[in-house]
Design goal:
mainly alpha, three-stranded antiparallel β-sheet, two-stranded antiparallel sheet, 8 helices
């Protein structure tokens, strides 16, 4: 209930539960309802206008231009690099592959993460045993940087939608660059781990024994880093390219809507013409049948 009567301004108390004002008798819920309805319509139109602006921006950000279509594709394609072998650590016992499914090794990245989270304390004990400067430590740091690279790629992908209102933003570029730097750092740290293995005859990856380890960066890493760099370049080009404002996008949306409605109207006209033609044809056929029947009856009468 309103705090005051909209007609006479009388202060209304909480115990006044009647719909009519006790002072002037006006129905408070129905007072000036046409004006309030018009006001509600204006507010609704404003909200729809704001909603359409958001949709226009998101659509434009995703597939508004060929360059933006290339961006949305290249934003998640680098994730394919995680399926490919980034690096491999070989030994006389088992080989460990820094790729998702272990295409070229006995132990995949998933297996390594399961082993780590299954007995984290054992891993840190082994790291402490090698003074946090051995192959195990460097390899796990390399995996951490690889995961960070993936995180930066995912953030950059979703920023395309979240930052749709700012088509000139360089936020995606920043996270792409962070992803590239994380990938490069991951490769550097892994290489340090391989070099450290020359001074370690045997050590354990948790419950995975490693002897006489060798290894290096695999071909999948170079594919992933190339895709990351390309994605970064495309985001830079998008940030520098001219962008349409809200008025232009709304005008284009209305033009598409009008064209669609006109097409539907023309289709409806064609359907109505077809219906009329069909009815006319059926009427002519029926008239022809009736005429033939009458002629036949007349002929029979003449014979009689």
């Amino acid at each position: 209930m309103a705090s005051t009567c909209p007609n006479c301004g009388k202060k209304l108390h909480i115990y006044e539960i009647k719909a009519e004002c006790s002072q002037c008798g006006v129905s408070i819920p129905n007072f000036n309802w046409e004006a309030r309805l018009e006001e509600d319509n204006i507010k609704a139109e404003q909200k729809f206008s704001s909603f359409y602006k958001i949709l226009n921006r998101i659509a434009y950000s995703i597939y508004g231009t060929k360059l933006r279509i290339a961006r949305i594709i290249l934003s998640f394609i680098p994730i394919v690099g995680y399926i490919l072998p980034w690096a491999t650590l070989k030994s006389d016992t088992k080989s460990i592959g820094i790729d998702l499914f272990g295409m070229t090794s006995d132990v995949s990245l998933l297996d390594l993460l399961k082993s780590f989270f299954g007995n984290t304390e054992l891993y840190f004990t082994n790291m402490a045993y090698e003074g946090y400067a051995g192959t195990l430590t460097y390899t796990m740091i390399s995996v951490l940087l690889m995961v960070l690279c993936l995180l930066f790629m995912v953030i950059a992908f979703f920023l395309i939608i979240f930052k749709a209102k700012k088509p000139k933003t360089k936020a995606m570029v920043v996270f792409d660059i962070l992803g590239v730097l994380s990938a490069v750092a991951s490769a550097v740290v892994f290489t340090l781990g391989v070099n450290a293995a020359q001074n370690q005859v045997g050590f354990n990856f948790g419950d995975i024994p490693i002897y006489n380890a060798t290894g290096g960066i695999a071909w999948g890493y170079y594919v992933a880093i190339a895709l990351l760099v390309v994605a970064t370049v495309v985001n830079i080009l998008v940030a520098k390219a001219p962008a349409k404002d809200d008025e232009v996008l709304e005008a284009e949306r209305l033009a598409r809507k009008a064209a669609k409605e006109e097409k539907e109207r023309q289709q409806e006209i064609e359907r109505e013409k077809a219906r009329i033609e069909n009815e006319k044809r059926q009427a002519e056929e029926q008239a022809e049948i009736v005429a033939k029947a009458k002629a036949k009856l007349a002929e029979m009468e003449n014979k009689k």
